């Protein structure tokens, strides 16, 4: 049973560029959340997708956008990259129906902006 | 809004010694509480969770935590640590309603030496 998979594992971009990160949820999960983890910090919530809609959003600018596909996979897009966007981006999946479902995290995408 | 404070950024301990990692939270409403572990270059793995009921919660790898509502704490403990427990530990909280994000602390690095 595959867990949460993210691609790519590492990425280097230049300031001003755009980036797309991808996530496949754990089998049976229908909800995907994205978190940004800066070096030495705890993860910060970006947004959550369920039924192909953004259900909740954290304190991130509109440069951060996302999408969820019918197969529950998800993309995170970041436009006009800034040096401060350098971080580990974590995708987490869960099952919305049937009570409290803990988040299952992928290994993340390490984004470096130069 | 909820917040989580992990009082110790780093906890050094010798192998086979007991350890306690401290976590305090702030919330005006009922919450769920979680502990996650992060090994180098990996995502977060759920150690244990408190949803309701018994305030002593047992998790994987011999860890346990106790929910104390009056002190708004959720400290993590292990009676005897191993070298392999060296990792970053994150306490997290979420509201017990709807599509709610996880709010993480800044993490505690547990360093186990022989």
Please tell me about this protein's structure.
The complex is a heterodimer of chains A (114) and B (114). Chain A has 114 residues and is mainly beta. Chain A contains no helices and 11 strands. In chain A, the strands form 2 sheets. In chain A, strands 2, 4, 5, 6, 9, 10 and 11 form a 7-stranded mixed sheet that branches. Chain A has a 4-stranded antiparallel sheet with strand order 1-3-8-7, with no helix packed on it. In chain A, a hairpin with a 2-residue loop joins β5 (44-50) and β6. The model of chain A has no long low-confidence stretch (mean pLDDT 93). With 114 residues, chain B is mostly beta strands. In chain B, strands 2, 5, 6, 10, 11 and 12 form a 6-stranded mixed sheet that branches. In chain B, β7 and β8 form a beta hairpin. Chain B is globular. The model of chain B has no long low-confidence stretch (mean pLDDT 93). The interface between A and B is medium-sized, with 26 and 24 residues.
Q: State Rg of chain A.
A: 13 Å
Number of strands of chain B: 12
Q: Mean pLDDT across all residues of chain A, rounded?
A: 93
What is the N-to-C succession of helices and strands of chain A? EEEEEEEEEEE
Rg value of chain B: 14 Å
CA-based shape of chain B: globular
Largest sheet of chain B: 6 strands, mixed
Number of helical segments with 4 or more residues of chain A: 0
End-to-end separation of chain B:
41 Å
Computed structural class of chain B: mainly beta
> How does the overall form of chain A come out from the CA principal axes?
globular
Major pleated sheet of chain A: 7 strands, mixed
Mean of residue pLDDT values of chain B: 93
Walk me through the topology:
The complex is a heterodimer of chains A (114) and B (114).
Chain A: E1 5-7, E2 10-13, E3 19-24, E4 31-37, E5 44-50, E6 53-57, E7 64-68, E8 74-78, E9 87-94, E10 104-105, E11 109-113
Parallel strand pairs in A: 2-11
Antiparallel strand pairs in A: 1-3, 3-8, 4-5, 4-9, 5-6, 7-8, 9-10, 9-11
Chain B: E1 3-5, E2 10-14, E3 19-21, E4 24-26, E5 31-38, E6 44-50, E7 56-58, E8 64-68, E9 73-78, E10 87-95, E11 103-104, E12 108-113
């Amino acid at each position: 049973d595959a867990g949460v998979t993210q691609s790519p594992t590492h990425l280097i971009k230049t300031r001003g560029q755009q980036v797309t990160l991808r996530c496949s949820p754990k089998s049976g999960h229908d909800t995907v959340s994205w978190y940004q983890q800066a070096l030495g910090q705890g993860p910060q919530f970006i947004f959550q997708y369920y039924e192909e809609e953004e259900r909740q959003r954290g304190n991130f600018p509109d440069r951060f956008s996302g999408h969820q596909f019918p197969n529950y996979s998800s993309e995170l897009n970041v436009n006009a990259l800034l040096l401060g966007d350098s971080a580990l981006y974590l995708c987490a999946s869960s099952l919305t129906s049937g009570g409290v479902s803990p988040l299952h995290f992928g290994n993340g995408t390490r984004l470096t902006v130069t | 809004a909820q917040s989580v404070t992990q009082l110790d950024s780093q906890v050094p301990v010798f192998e086979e010694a007991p350890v306690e990692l401290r976590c305090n939270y702030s919330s005006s409403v009922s919450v769920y509480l979680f502990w996650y572990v992060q090994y180098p270059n990996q995502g977060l793995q759920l150690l244990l969770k408190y949803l309701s009921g018994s305030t002593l919660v047992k998790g994987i790898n011999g860890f346990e935590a106790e929910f104390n509502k009056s002190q708004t704490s959720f400290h993590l403990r292990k009676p005897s640590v191993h070298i392999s427990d060296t990792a970053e530990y994150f306490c997290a909280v979420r509201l017990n309603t709807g599509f709610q994000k996880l709010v993480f602390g800044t993490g505690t690095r547990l360093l186990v030496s022989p």
